[in-house]
Write a structure and sequence with these properties.
Radius of gyration of chain B: 24 Å
Helix content of chain B: 25-40%
Shape of chain B: globular
Oligomer: heterodimer
Radius of gyration of chain A: 24 Å
Strand content of chain B: 15-25%
CATH architecture of the largest domain in chain A: Orthogonal Bundle
Distance between the termini of chain B: 40 Å
Strand content of chain A: under 5%
Structural class of chain A: mainly alpha
Largest sheet of chain B: 7 strands, mixed
Number of helices of chain A: 13
Number of strands of chain A: 0
CATH class of the largest domain in chain A: Mainly Alpha
Shape of chain A: globular
Number of strands of chain B: 22
Largest sheet of chain A: none
Distance between the termini of chain A: 15 Å
Chain lengths: 326, 533
């Protein structure tokens, strides 16, 4: 219960942060020259009527002063109304809800891939520290970490889609195939293999390094010696005693990276033509669609807060001292 | 014997030509029914209805579902589409269209003159970009019967101008879907209802659009394809990979990286060509802000034009996809390209230096005469290369250039509304007649904030007079002469310079048949397109 109270306090403390983020974002976008009507005129390619542009600005509420626009936005937000998207001609909430599943799916797949593979490789590397497995794993990790994700993605497409023709080159599912049930799940999975690997490999490197370092540190602690002295075999020592304690930094990292993943997927979504939140945000900036952009920031911030809340709960489970107080 | 030899010669000639022009070899093939055309859709638009927005991004989709009154044939001449014939009254103020009969909208309702009247008065005249200017003096469209539409103009409207504008600016929308609604918010804007060969089926934002064969199409037994699918692929390299993987069969309007275009051009599976885009010519511009006193001096503008080695730039950066420009009217415009030579500004660094000296701009510290800001438009790779080339070329004559890169909204606002620039560079799109989208770059009195118009602070009574006379001139020969006068005037005064001419590049998978068979093919309806197995 104490944990819940603690986490609840954290949750309440994040509310002012949320407001600050939204207001900051709003003001930041005001600094960018041009508004959504300029972006629309750009799409038209000329011949736009000046009177029409003025009418559109009135229609989108862009003729008001900046404080008035901001006040309007927050007043709508209080009533849980994210506003209307200028690009899509639909409520922002609908637009985001359409895109959210793809991003969440990609994010959770990539994060779990990075977490579990990073964990296993980290343990392997720590077990044979400075041996050839360790060197191999650490070098690979460094290579993955140093490679830009768009290049990785493009090379994966060139190899697996263009040359080998094993996997689709992009998209979320086969267009117009009308698959249902398991067939559809498999189809989407096939489309997500390359983006998941591309996004996951970069994070994998971080998890691997952290896990290796953390394992090495815990292995030197007294209770490990005690466990060994009890006569437990090495595997049991590692899984029951070391692993559990070495996991804490990993869990912290997941909480931190949930947010990064949302932003990091702009590149991967673009390369693999996935309809996710990252591309939506990018498009919203380019087209100066303020409502959509703020909506995405709001939802992303909420996601990060929820993930951190869950991380707090997991902490307590892994290390009972946190829940029990001092 | 003689005959046999000739026959042999003919056959070998045919063989040779089929090697050189592979598409000709398929002329005898029987079109195959069925198949799915997949298209690269690079930039998603807010709407898909070409009666409301005239842009290539709309035509590439909406142009398959909706149709214009008049289209262009293979030779680039106006040809019947929804209108079967037309005639103009001698005073040029009345133009009568006879409409095709037996055409139905995708929802089954008949197409009539009421649809033309509604679209012309409510969309072309009030909302459609370029349409509002073209139809400015349209007072009414009379509908004496269901298949006749009579356009009434306050001032004479040259028939040639209207017919060349209508393939782009003459798409018809159904009155029964739009009447009494907020046109801008109508759901049909993203789910078009038209008369075209393909019927809208589904649009998933950020992913794809699907249209299916219209079984009741007025061209009997057409189209051949079952479906057209547009795949939204924003990343240019990813799009090239999808072409190679066969997920996309056609990439329109120079949407790939120049390096990829050149690479795919050497691949036998694809044809990379400007063919089929002759009606979509564009020129690269160099725009001067006259509010800067340095640039208001004609000697400085001419010096800048002389300082650019355009043939070198084209040869080394753009390759076969561009040629030397000669002014606002590109050479593909057979009707209006001036026949006599016009003032030009060949690369001549000594002359550039002399002009700048003469204007009183002596070289100062570090050999710099003065500094200018250059705003490049963010539309294409060629513009980014061109702006760097300008920067380096002008440095040679003592002009320091700072490049200010902005995205689309920022560029348009800064240059065309805030006038906060010295030099700007982008594209001018030529739309078959100079009065549609070219003269606005030069005509004074453009409202502030209208992109791609004269926002330079340049005003010239003589140029204005010529443009206004050409706008309402009914005699084609006199009109052509007026446009030659116009080019001579603006090439002399140089309010902006258009030194490069380009045509959009398309990439076709060679499985396609009947492609690029008219000068605006990417925008056209694809009713006869088919796919070899």
């Amino acid at each position: 219960m104490r944990v819940l109270a603690l986490a609840g306090r954290r949750l309440a403390a994040s509310l002012p942060t949320l407001v600050l983020i939204l207001a900051g974002m709003f003001l930041l976008l005001q600094l960018a020259p041009g508004d959504t009507v300029d972006a629309l005129l750009g799409q038209m390619g000329g011949g736009g009527d000046a009177a029409l542009a003025a009418e559109l600005r009135r229609y989108y509420g862009l003729d008001l002063s900046v404080p008035a626009q901001l006040a309007n936005y927050f007043w709508r937000l209080v009533r849980l109304d994210l506003g209307f998207s200028a690009i899509y001609g639909k409520p922002v909430a609908t637009v985001i809800l359409e895109r959210l599943p793809t991003t969440l799916l990609l994010m959770s797949a990539a994060l779990s891939f990075a977490f579990f593979v990073g964990l296993v490789l980290g343990v392997l590397a720590a077990r044979r520290v400075n041996g050839w497995t360790d060197t191999l794993i650490s070098t690979l990790g460094l290579v993955f970490y140093a490679t830009p994700s768009f290049w990785f993605g493009l090379m994966a497409i060139v190899l697996f889609s263009v040359h080998l023709a094993w996997l689709p080159a992009g998209g979320f599912e086969e267009i117009g195939a009308g698959y249902t049930g398991l067939r559809r799940v498999l189809d989407i999975a096939a489309h997500l293999v390359l983006p998941t690997l591309t996004l996951g490999l970069i994070f994998l490197a971080i998890y691997l390094r952290i896990m290796r370092a953390s394992m090495l540190e815990v292995l030197t602690l007294d209770f490990v010696r005690t466990a060994r002295a009890k006569g437990l075999d090495e595997t049991r020592v590692l899984t029951r005693h070391v692993l559990r304690n070495a996991m804490l930094p990993m869990v912290t990292l997941i909480g931190l990276q949930a947010g990064t993943m949302l932003g990091g997927s702009v590149v991967v979504e673009s390369v693999f033509s996935l309809p996710g939140l990252g591309r939506l945000a990018y498009e919203a900036v380019v087209q100066r669609d303020l409502n959509t952009l703020l909506g995405i920031v709001f939802i992303s911030a909420l996601l990060v807060i929820v993930v951190n809340f869950l991380v707090d709960l997991v902490y307590a489970r892994l290390d009972p001292r946190i829940g029990a107080g001092r | 014997m003689d005959l046999t030899r000739r026959a042999t010669l003919l056959t070998s000639a045919a063989l040779a030509s089929s090697v050189m022009f592979p598409e000709r070899a398929f002329a005898q093939e029987t079109p195959r029914r069925g198949g799915v055309m997949t298209v690269h859709f690079a930039t998603e638009q807010r709407i898909l209805n070409p009666s409301l927005q005239a842009s290539t991004g709309v035509y590439i989709v909406g142009g398959k579902m909706q149709e214009p009154l008049v289209d262009l044939d293979a030779a680039g001449n106006p040809t019947a589409c929804l209108a079967e014939s037309w005639e103009a009254a001698p005073d040029g103020k009345t133009i009568t269209f006879r409409l095709r009969q037996g055409v139905t909208w995708h929802d089954g309702r008949p197409f009539t003159s009421a649809d033309v009247q509604f679209t012309a008065m409510e969309m072309w005249k009030k909302i459609l970009n370029y349409g509002t200017a073209l139809q400015q003096f349209l007072t009414a469209v009379d509908t004496p019967d269901a298949r006749t539409a009579v356009f009434r103009y306050e001032r004479p409207m040259p028939l040639n101008l209207l017919l060349r504008a209508l393939p782009d600016l003459g798409y018809v929308s159904p009155k029964h879907v739009y009447e009494g609604t907020n046109i801008r918010e109508n759901p049909a804007n993203t789910a078009p209802v038209g008369t075209g060969p393909y019927r809208f089926l589904q649009y998933e934002r950020g992913q794809f659009i699907i249209a299916e064969r219209n079984p009741n199409y007025w061209r009997n037994n057409l189209p051949y394809l079952d479906r057209v699918v547009w795949r939204v692929v924003g990343d240019r390299s990813a799009a090239a990979a999808q072409l190679e993987a066969g997920q996309i069969l056609f990439s329109p309007y120079s949407s790939l990286a120049i390096a990829d275009l050149q690479r795919l051009g050497r691949d036998p599976r694809f044809e990379v060509t400007t063919r089929g885009n002759e009606g979509n010519a564009r020129t690269n511009t160099l725009e001067f802000n006259f509010r800067n006193p340095v640039l208001a001096d004609i000697r400085v503008r001419r010096a800048i034009a002389h300082a650019l080695d355009v043939p070198f730039f084209i040869e080394n950066f753009l390759g076969d996809f561009a040629k030397l420009g000669t002014g606002p009217i590109p050479s593909v415009s057979r009707d209006y390209y001036p026949t006599e030579p016009m003032p030009q500004y060949a690369f001549d660094r000594r002359r550039a230096n002399a002009l700048l000296d003469e204007a009183g701009h002596r070289r100062g510290a570090g050999g710099v005469r003065f500094t200018l800001r250059l705003n490049p438009a963010p539309w294409g790779e060629d513009i980014a290369l061109w702006s760097t080339f300008i920067q380096q070329s002008l440095q040679e004559v003592g002009i320091r250039v700072e490049i200010v890169r902005l995205d689309a909204a920022g560029f348009l606002r800064t240059v065309y509304n805030d006038w906060n620039f010295d030099l700007a560079t982008g594209w001018h799109q030529y739309r078959n007649d100079p009065a549609v989208s070219t003269t606005v770059w030069y005509r004074s009195g453009q409202p502030r904030g209208a992109p791609w118009t004269n926002q330079w602070g340049w005003q010239d009574a003589e140029a204005d007079r010529i443009m206004d006379a050409a706008q309402t001139e009914l005699d084609p020969a006199r009109r052509k002469q007026l446009y030659a006068d116009f080019v001579r005037r603006v090439n002399t005064e140089l309010p902006l310079w258009m030194p490069i001419e380009q045509i959009f590049v398309s990439v076709f998978n060679r499985r396609l048949r009947n492609y690029a068979n008219n000068p605006r093919w990417a925008s056209s309806s694809w009713h006869d397109l088919w796919l070899a197995s």
